[in-house]
Amino acid sequence: MRLLRIVGLLVALFAFAGAGDALAQGKPKVKFITSLGEFIVELEPEKAPGTVENFLGYVRDGHYTGTIFHRVIPGFVVQGGGFSREYRRRRTGAPIRNEADTGLSNERGTIAMARTSDPHSATDQFYINIRLNKGLDHTAKTRNGWGYTAFGRVIDGMRIISRISRVERGPGGPFRQDVPRTPVVIEKAEIIN
User: Fold this and answer.
1) H and E: helices and strands count for the chain
2) Which domain holds residue 164?
């Protein structure tokens, strides 16, 4: 009887240890290889599960390969993921529910979903905050208060994001301003964890 209790305790202990490992490994990481260098983001599925799964789906499908950072505003954000070098809009899945009310703040180095004025319109485009952008955070479940869903952060290569934020900009494709004069291309995005 005592032996059975000890075996049961050991099984429970190993199960608990395994669960801890799973939790430690539970934050997926995505490496972006761009024409200006590489950076890695670590995602927060426990804070923005639908957003993270949506983003990882695009990564798995190779959606971001060959897209550009089409909107670069120094001291604010760099935005990309939706347009080819020729400014052709990539086909997307259905829009996702805004999770800014349960997610992270738009702090420097966080990755977040871009969207239209409709709070629940995010698809594939993302941006990375160059500085703390509290004005993009959730304040209320109203059209103007929803904010933008941050769902991870740059853990390696923030200097590359800073470099992207300083490129020469102007008009490009359908955009009147804030487009890098020399395209900053996402050559590959891959899940590394």
Assistant:
1) 3, 10
2) 28-191
